[in-house]
Amino acid sequence: MNLTNSHPDLKFHYIAHTSCDFIDERAIVSGSEPADTYLGLLYTMEDLAVYGYVTNTKVKFVVVLSIPDAVIKNTDIKNLFKKIHNVYINQVCNPFYNLDGKKSIVSKKFIESIDAIGSMSSDEVVSP
Amino acid sequence: MSVLQTASSAIITPFFTSLASGDEVQGSTSNIGGGSNGGNMSVNLKPTHVNESCLEFLMMEMVDLMYRTTVDSENDKEAVYYKLEMLGYQVGQSLVERFTRDRPRFVDTLDVVKFICKDLWSIIFKKQIDNLKTNHRGVYVLQDNNFRWFLRMSTESGSEAAAKRSVPYLWFPCGLIRGALANLGVVSVVIAETNSLPQCSFQIKIAKS
């Protein structure tokens, strides 16, 4: 699938949309066991692994990683999602952000924090 | 006008966060936790202590402020109700976002309402709802026999007059509940009533899906 020439991020938008379907499948709660927020590895595509996490407020986080040679531990990904969730919580508590507005987040601080998480080295990912 | 409202909710959310994480320090100078980004990414955050009296004064003044600054005399009551309720709505959303973080996911609507009765009420008022009734068809009644924000309210003309005058002070908690429910995926209408202070009850009507 050669989408990268037209728009570099288009591939990731596509991945995010297909992830939503996978998340909806996994998120159906079975009656007996309490559901967890971390959904684990959703699927893999070419050289990318996609992980999902859904919050109690029905917000879905999708992380796309290029598969490295080393094994990725579940706890590392969980910590990653925890950090992302914290940044999101700070954004929601901003009184100037309208949660019901259906607009994408344009706050500079939020984007910078997410970029900082994205560019973290593998050592820093381990600590919560 | 909207700047005032957003500024008020900016102050209120860190109040609740601090009350949840630290102890109250009555009667001394307070240290209000930082601005609109009340939370923090690091785990070793020392709890910020907030004076509970400040919060009560803020709540009282907020209702007064809305009455003073609402100019339109015809739709006075509606406008004040709308402003206070929307303020509570946004604070409720933020609170729920922050405090449902490490919980397992909710199973159904009753679970959500129970969370509000137990966890959310403990965070805001340091006690749980005293009585929860439901007709199992989408109507819940939450009864608080000792509403914390009413503990220091009284009038000289007795309890009935006091109950009538305290109604505007219930609009913000109504919004709080509605915002909390909305962010958890439950659309509702919340009405509050009180017969005698400090007792009050909130009626939640959940929209049929």
From TrEMBL, chain A:
It comes from the Eukaryota. GO terms for biological process: endoplasmic reticulum to Golgi vesicle-mediated transport. Coiled coil: none annotated. Transmembrane segments: none annotated. Pfam families: Sedlin_N. InterPro entries: Longin-like_dom_sf, Sedlin, TRAPPC2L. One of its GO terms (cellular component) is cytoplasm. Belongs to the TRAPP small subunits family. Sedlin subfamily. This is Trafficking protein particle complex subunit 2-like protein. It comes from Rhizophagus clarus.
TrEMBL record, chain B:
InterPro entries: NO_sig/Golgi_transp_ligand-bd, TRAPP_component, TRAPPC6/Trs33. One of its GO terms (cellular component) is cis-Golgi network. Pfam families: TRAPP. Gene3D superfamilies: Trafficking protein particle complex subunit 3 (3.30.1380.20). One of its GO terms (biological process) is endoplasmic reticulum to Golgi vesicle-mediated transport. Belongs to the TRAPP small subunits family. BET3 subfamily. This is Trafficking protein particle complex subunit 6B.
